[in-house]
Design brief:
The complex is a heterodimer of chains A (490) and B (94). With 490 residues, chain A is an alpha+beta fold. Chain A has helices at residues 39-42, 53-65, 162-178, 219-238, 284-293, 298-309, 313-319, 323-338, 348-371, 382-393, 399-410, 416-423, 431-444, 446-453, 457-470, 477-489, and strands at residues 3-14, 69-70, 73-74, 76-80, 90-94, 100-101, 104-109, 112-125, 129-135, 138-142, 149-155, 191-201, 211-216, 246-251, 256-262, 272-273, 280-281. Chain B is mainly α and 94 residues long. Helix content of chain B is 39%, strand content 7%. Classes of the chains: A alpha+beta (490), B mainly alpha (94).
Chain lengths: 490, 94
């Protein structure tokens, strides 16, 4: 039987505020246990939560960025459960009236693009951390994380494969880091994914029973966990079992998911509006200010790269994979456009953008990947790369020599011009000089000349190769071709 | 109306231990409250927007600034058991 996979994601993004969502304690990562947990975070008697404006602002930015509806009045609710790292006995979250509802995000899987609908995004506080190492038969509690502001982003069950789920998670990751509401540090838990997964016979309208995979903190684990879970569910059903609704955990070591709790054991959270917090009202001025603070979004940039610079959809998507990468690329283009240009005029923007795109996605990204570095850690700044590309554009360097200069720049040998000067890498364009070398090469290779005259094209290439060798790659290959043809014809 | 089983379940969710006699008493009391609510539900509220709070006021927002200093020593001085900066609680394994 053909099976169809149905996936929806819930993503917890930690917001980039300075202080907690309901208290003035700091949220820096890695502090000594409980040194960032104040009376409100510990739930000492008589304390009251006061909402952080920074958290509300970031949620608004997110809502605007995905074209969602902002609930002008939204409400905080108590989600009740008992666990020692949740000292109040409830988590303050949003239930019936979340701050953000609806919206959508476009994803790209291979050549196919698709729009994923979002259900909602709501503000809530994080819980503390339980340490289960042995403390004389006790559990240790660190409440530094308690009260850290989170935006939980819930998608519709619109994804049909692990690849789509990963593409969505990556697009969401790119967006929240792009607009600066989340630092994106997955090792530190700033972006945590829960995946709701079910399968159904292809063509069936109703969804199958879902199982929720909790707390995936890498895109690789997300894909592995979904692939495993889908295979497991299909096998169970084909073996004649029914899927029970459950919460499962993914074990990266075994690559398998295992049951955490079934539906019967599921929590009954008994949500109700938190009487300690008044409804939150978003006024026009605040929303307008957030709108004005939003940078140009990935989708808008992609459209602009395609329409203004003639880049392909694939190139545009690759260059906007992160805000830092797009900024770098645009800085290279801007610099090249103002540098002295022999071929200025019609199509200049397109030529420059295409050249910059090729180098940013090719040599630069390749080198960064090889060394495991982020674009922000590039050893060659945007202005320096533009300096190199300018020499490629004005014909000083051949493509091959440019790569050599790039490697030298990466090794810290200085700017392109200085390296070209120091190493004498200037492409040879003095016709007289090239002709002199050509004559030498022809004289030294009478056999090749003969073969060429006998109609062997290969011999021509061998001669070009000899010339390039003699000039140590500095001759312009096109020029060599033309001159050689002329000489052999003559 | 709540059954005795409902009462026991609610008590469990709230982590309250109730004896069988208490459970019966709470069942009667809770059902009394629910009966009251049932009476109120007879009122036609169509077209009335539900309130999230009894007053028509909105949440004031706090500036995003760190205002709370580290007072761990003071807090942990009154905690029943601490070690290595952690609060210790009876072992929990889900």
């Amino acid at each position: 039987m053909q099976w169809e996979t149905v996936i929806g994601l819930e993503v917890h993004t930690q917001l980039t505020t300075r202080s907690k969502i309901f208290s003035g304690a700091p949220i820096e990562f890695g502090a000594a246990p409980n040194t960032q947990a104040c009376a409100v975070d510990l739930a000492l008697p008589g304390v009251l939560p006061v909402l952080n404006r920074g958290a509300v602002e970031r949620a608004i930015k997110f809502g605007l960025a995905i074209g969602a509806r902002l609930n002008r009045v939204n409400v905080f609710a108590r989600k009740n459960y008992f666990y020692p790292d949740l000292p109040k006995g409830y988590q303050i979250s949003q239930f019936e009236l979340p701050i953000v509802e609806g919206g959508e995000l476009a994803i790209q899987v291979g050549d196919a693009s698709k729009v994923i609908r979002l259900t909602r995004a709501h503000l809530e506080e994080d819980a503390g951390k339980s340490l289960h190492e042995d403390f004389h038969g006790c559990t240790g509690i660190d409440l530094n994380r308690a009260g850290t502001p989170l935006l939980e982003i819930v998608s519709e069950p619109d994804m049909r494969s692990a690849k789509e789920a990963v593409a969505y998670a990556r697009a969401l990751y790119n967006l929240v880091t792009w607009i600066g509401i989340c630092d994106g540090n997955m090792q530190e838990g700033s972006f945590r994914v829960d995946a709701n997964v079910s399968v159904r016979p292809a063509g069936q309208k109703e969804f199958g029973t879902r199982r929720e995979i909790k707390n995936l903190n890498s895109f690789r684990f997300l894909e592995q966990a979904i692939d495993y879970e889908v295979r497991w569910q299909i096998e169970r059903i084909e073996d004649g079992h029914a899927i029970q609704q459950a919460t499962v955990l993914f074990d990266p070591d075994s690559g398998a998911t295992r049951m955490m709790r079934t539906k019967e054991e599921a929590h009954d959270y008994r949500y109700f509006p938190d009487p300690d917090l008044l409804p939150v009202r978003l006024d026009d001025a605040l929303i307008a200010r957030m709108q004005s603070e939003l940078p140009e979004l990935p989708q808008a940039k992609q459209a602009r790269y395609q329409s203004d610079w003639g880049l392909s959809a694939y190139d545009a998507a690759t260059l906007t994979a992160s805000h830092a990468l797009a900024e770098y690329f645009e800085a290279v283009v801007a610099k090249l456009l103002v540098s002295p240009r022999p071929q200025a005029g019609e199509g200049q923007g397109e030529r420059v953008a295409k050249l910059a795109a090729n180098w940013v996605m090719g040599e630069l990204s390749g080198t960064l990947n090889k060394e495991g570095l982020d674009i922000a850690e590039s050893r060659i700044g945007a202005a320096s790369l533009a300096g190199l590309l300018a020499r490629l554009q004005d014909g000083t360097l051949s493509g091959k020599l440019a790569k050599e200069v790039f490697a030298a720049m990466w090794a810290g040998e200085g700017e392109a011009d200085a390296i070209i000067e120091a190493k004498g890498l200037k492409q040879m364009s003095d016709t007289g000089e090239i002709e002199r070398i050509l004559d030498e090469v022809l004289a030294a290779n009478p056999k090749s000349v003969e073969e060429f005259r006998a109609g062997k094209d290969k011999a021509f290439n061998a001669l070009v190769g000899q010339v390039m060798k003699a000039t140590r790659g500095k001759a312009n290959p096109q020029q060599v071709n033309e001159l050689l043809k002329k000489k052999l014809a003559g | 109306m709540l059954s005795l089983e409902d009462v026991r379940r609610i008590a469990h969710l709230a982590r309250i231990r109730v004896s069988p006699e208490e459970a019966a008493r709470y069942q009667a009391q809770l059902n009394g409250i629910l009966g009251l609510i049932e009476q109120m539900q007879a009122v036609d509220t169509s077209g009335v927007e539900p309130m999230a709070h009894a007053q028509e006021v909105y949440q004031r927002l706090r500036e995003d600034a760190v205002t709370e200093p580290d007072r761990r020593d003071a807090f942990q001085a009154v905690a029943p058991q601490v070690e290595a900066g952690l609060y210790l609680v009876p072992k929990v394994i889900e």
